[in-house]
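Q: Given only this backbone (381 positions), what sequence would you predict?
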């Protein structure tokens, strides 16, 4: 059987969540499936060593214009050319006109739920992307054989949004966590990453970005009050955030001086993240809305106490291994930071629970479940 997998952005140097999920799916399928023939459709870019061909996995580079043109015109054309009997689109969108059976991984529908999220805090690129998805995703979903999403929370959210029955068309398959997220005891590895990203000695780690759902302003408010009460004993490390955008937010909360205590790492390669988790005292993940939340599991696997939200998918994924807070109340975030720093017994409890929780999720398990979906659709075709 011939299976096509869309991986348009896999070769771009700066990969993010959906890119990493697609990459891990393909890598694990290469290990577990030696029978079916796979065609991985990507757009040429600089990181062409992240994925290698094997006997039954073929990397097909498709050049051709912008994201919409590539996806709507060139992708279905290429899938047909190579005789694919199934096309899996991995990143929320898919071609509307495609005469090949489709599976779509729909990570979330946040862009469909709120125009305020569409407008506020986004670049023009993000706004266009959200508009594209709002227009193209609903008809593409209707044409799909199966929809994969990443949590039971998101499954119900999608089903209720569209008013669909619970008939098996939407399947929840959890993401995983890489094996290299673990405690690191090699001081050379830790010091190398510390120097590379200019990390302070004691810090909280926050994966913030300009997306309003990440609740960056709530974290900054909580941290500003922490500094007022406890001084600058702990810095705040933020990944992949621009200094100008940070200054604007700090001015908004009337704490511009806080910028001296915040360390901006820029983009961090996924393989460097474990060493950062291992050196932080707390991991802050108080998002307003998540469909899954892989970073929570990464931090847990590294033995770091996690503060996360009591909303959306986060309690489902974190289980009893995180400190849950109300993300809309920055005092809740502040109290959690103070509790975990002052209560060693609680820290150790969450550390041990975190190891157990992270171990429940694996890319291999995810890939086996998706492979079973491929087989189900191809057999029933």
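A: Predicted residues:
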């Amino acid at each position: 059987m011939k299976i096509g997998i869309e991986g348009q952005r896999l070769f771009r140097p700066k990969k993010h969540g959906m890119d990493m999920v697609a990459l891990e799916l393909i890598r694990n399928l290469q290990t577990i499936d030696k029978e079916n023939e796979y065609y991985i459709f990507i757009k040429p870019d600089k990181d062409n060593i992240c994925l290698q061909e094997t006997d039954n996995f073929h990397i097909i580079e498709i050049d051709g214009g912008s994201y919409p043109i590539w996806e709507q015109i060139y992708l279905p054309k290429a899938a047909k050319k190579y005789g694919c009997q199934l096309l899996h689109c991995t990143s929320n969108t898919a071609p509307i006109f495609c005469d090949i059976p489709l599976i779509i991984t729909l990570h979330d529908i946040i862009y469909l739920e709120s125009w305020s999220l569409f407008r506020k805090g986004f670049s023009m690129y993000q706004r266009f992307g959200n508009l594209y998805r709002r227009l193209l995703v609903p008809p593409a979903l209707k044409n799909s054989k199966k929809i994969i999403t990443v949590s039971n929370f998101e499954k119900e959210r999608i089903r209720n949004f569209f008013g669909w029955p619970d008939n098996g068309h939407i399947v929840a398959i959890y993401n995983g966590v890489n094996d290299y997220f673990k405690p690191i005891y090699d001081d050379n590895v830790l010091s190398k990453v510390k120097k590379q990203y200019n990390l302070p000695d004691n810090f909280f780690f926050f994966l913030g970005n300009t997306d309003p759902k990440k609740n960056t302003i709530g974290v900054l408010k909580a941290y500003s009050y922490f500094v007022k009460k406890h001084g600058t004993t702990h810095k705040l490390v933020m990944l992949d955030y621009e200094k100008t955008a940070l200054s604007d937010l700090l001015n908004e909360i009337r704490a511009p001086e806080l910028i001296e205590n915040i360390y901006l790492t820029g983009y961090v390669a996924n393989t460097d993240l474990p060493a950062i988790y291992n050196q932080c005292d707390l991991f802050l993940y108080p998002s307003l809305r998540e469909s899954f939340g892989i970073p929570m599991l990464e931090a847990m696997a590294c033995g770091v106490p996690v503060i996360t939200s009591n909303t959306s998918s986060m309690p489902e994924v974190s289980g009893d291994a995180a400190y849950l807070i109300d993300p809309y109340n920055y005092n809740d975030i502040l109290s959690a930071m103070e509790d975990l720093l002052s209560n060693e017994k609680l820290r150790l409890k969450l550390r041990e629970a975190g190891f157990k929780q992270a171990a429940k999720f694996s890319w291999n398990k995810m890939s086996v479940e998706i492979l079973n979906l491929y087989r189900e659709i191809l057999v029933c075709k």
